[in-house]
Design a protein that fits this description.
alpha+beta, six-stranded antiparallel β-sheet, three-stranded antiparallel β-sheet, 15 strands, 52% helix, 9% strand
Amino acid sequence: MTRYLDAGGRSVVTARPLGSGGEGTVYALENQPGMVAKVYSRPLQPQDSEKIRRVVQVRSPRLDAISAWPRGTLHDPAHAGGVGGGDSVLGVVMPFVDFSQATELHNLYGPSSRRKHFPLADWRFLVHVARNVARAFAELHAEGHLMGDVSSRNILVTQQGTVRFVDADSFQIRAGEQVYPCPVGTAECTPPELQGQRFGTLVRTPNHDRFGLALMMFYLLFEGRHPYAGVHADGAVLSPAEAIARHKFAYSREVQSGVRPPPGTLTLEALPQGLRVLFERAFSPTMSGRPTAQEWETALAHLSETLVRCQRSPQHLHAEEVACPWCALFPATSGAATAKTHLPGSARLLDADAEMNRIWIGLRGVPIPPAPRTLTLQVLPVPMPVAVPVMPAVPPFVVLSGAQRLAARGRQLWGVGLLLAALLLKMEGLPVFLSLVVAFFGWLSIRAGHPKRRERDLRRRYEREQLGAVRTYQRQLQQMARTLEQEVVVLQRRLTQAQQMYQVSSALARYRAEFERLERRRREVSRIAKQERSRIEEGIRSYQQQSLERYLSLHAVQPGMLPGFGPALVASLHGGGVHTALEVELGRLRRVPGIGPKRTQELLWWRKTLEQFFSFDPAQVPAQVIEAARQVHQQELQEQLRVLEAEVPGLHHRVQAWIAAEQHAAEDVLSLMREIEQRQQAIVLLRSRSQ
């Protein structure tokens, strides 16, 4: 924090720095929101201090409305006794300007910067801002002051289109009968009659300021073009100062200066008659009677009220009394574009359309594969051979033989003998129990030896053995059927996959997919065929860039090239490798000692201005440059056509291969269907036998 005194002896304390430039540093102020202090980096000369005091004294509400006009001066507290007297002014207090809400005017009228800072701005907005700029100049001039160094960097514009002047302490001020000149100026905004003059003590007139005002109007209405940057009929390349001094107004319809507007730019015919006249007066070689700010405001008000939208392109805005200039500027057809830009049209060395039609006829001549057929078994296959098990053998039933019958009778007789023996034993007094046992065995012998009973028992055994054999046989058949059913399930899954593969990879499906690929390839070749003009333009742009670099290398960095650039500063630039405008680059300037942000911006602005004055006529591009670009395109196109033509025999071979692959796939499907059918028939057979 640093303490200063204002002109009334009141304390002013600076806070954090907000920014710095070549003239000084801007600080926020303690306890004064909305105000900042600009502290000069070098002590001011007495006459400069006196001017700053007058700047503050002439402040008015009208000036406050259009600018960040200084509100007070800063002085050294050590010389408190001399405050307000002859002590040096160390800085000024002025309103805070929020640069996040406003930007320098050139960021609006430059097409590329406008897309970044004002993406929604159209031509109506530019006309609106031009009116506000004219009103601000009218207020400034009405107060008796001039901007002097008219520059778009001294004018801020907001997103709403309001404008505000900054750096007012450098303006030319009138205080009573005393005039305090503006000591600086830039060549590209200086009127012809002042080119080459020193600005230190030069007293400008309103007519001089009106030249700069007309430049601002031209910048805003003509997409940032400088009115003196054009194409010279004799091929001359002039600097901005030279072009202005020699009255080379490129857009004039009344003065033939040997310069015409660059290709692809608006002309005065895009404006109503009133504005055309104002521009002719502003840049007339007579150098007198330039339009006042009020005249500009009136003409722009008329333009604003008569703006209409183009019927062909609604985004185009133009005065209703003229045809849409933007449609002429951006023609729809290549032929019209050629006439407008003077670029050479396509020579069509190779008729790409005819070549592709010829190749396409060959591709269409390849036979189209038939649609995949429905696969069914025309002849039912024989059942799958299975090893049917043999019914287990059962010994046949045999009736009793004569010997067996005789043996049975003998066994019965033996039983009768035992019964008689039991009776005798009873009679002999043997125990009853013993007699009963003998009688029981006798009964058994009689019962077992009965022939019919014997034959019935044998028949029952035979029937049991026969039934067991049948059941064993049925179980074997059912197990075989279940095994075959499991195999059928597996085969059904394989069949589904094979059928899907057959449909997807059919020759017709592959042919259609291949033709879609070839169609895309054809469109790609067609797109390449239409790029001849862009390739030529690319070659021309490359040649233009080389010409621009040669042009910039002709403009040396030397003392006096810009205000404040003396021998010491230029020597520092040379030491940093910056000898010409070509070497004026941000990265290089940052490495040069003594070049701060303000000097850097001034140098970059100088280079940008020179670039704008670089005139380039595509019609003067050497024929070999265009021919080289065209040959590169033709070679690429021929290679693409050769690759496309090679597809004809390739497609024929691929179709044959696809048909063969489809047949193999069909065989796979039919084979699986046969295997399934064979197993299903075998299953039916086994089921029928197992019942």
